[in-house]
Amino acid sequence: AEGSANRFIADALADHLRLRRLPGIYAGVNVFRLRQSLREHLVILDHLESLQYEVAADLLRIHLRLSRNQRPQAASRGAPALFGTISRPE
Fold first, then answer.
1. Distance of CA 24 to CAs 28, 42, 57, 65, Å?
2. DSSP state of 29
3. Three-state SS across the chain?
4. In the prediction, which pLDDT does 29 show?
5. H or E, element range at 86
6. Higher-confidence residue: 31 or 60?
7. Cα atoms found within 13 Å of the Cα of residue 10, Cβ hemisphere only
8. Per-residue pLDDT reduced to its tens digit, 23-40
9. Which has the closest alpha carbon to 75: 28, 39, 21?
10. Among residues 82, 46, 85, 41, which one has the least CA distance to residue 63?
């Protein structure tokens, strides 16, 4: 992240890694989805490093939609929703 010369990315990744180290932070989380999510992070970073920003942005949107459905309820407590309701076509 520091190699990107983007302080925001470096800070966001450092915060993310710090949260991963907290004991019990993933209690009750679907382990399959957690692994899938981490792979998604790596693919997004690969596209950013390759300067494929539009692809990275699209993958990030998909990642956020998938992750939003798996977030523990406590993660949203007291925080406003960042995105409008995402509904699936029926």
1. 9, 23, 30, 24
2. -
3. CHHHCCHHHHHHHHHHHHHHCCCCCCCCCCHHHHHHHHHHHHHHHHHHHCCCHHHHHHHHHHHHHHHHCCCCHHHHCCCCCCCCCCCCCC
4. 64
5. none
6. 60
7. 7
8. 555 555 677 877 888 899
9. 28
10. 41
pLDDT for position 65:
87
Three-state SS for 27-49 is CCCCHHHHHHHHHHHHHHHHHHH
At residue 3 the predicted structure's pLDDT band, cuts being 50, 70 and 90, is: low
Tokens of 65: 């939609």
- Is the pLDDT score of 45 beyond 80? yes
CA distance linking residue 22 with residue 11, whole number of Å: 17
Distance of CA 25 to the CA centre of its chain: 15
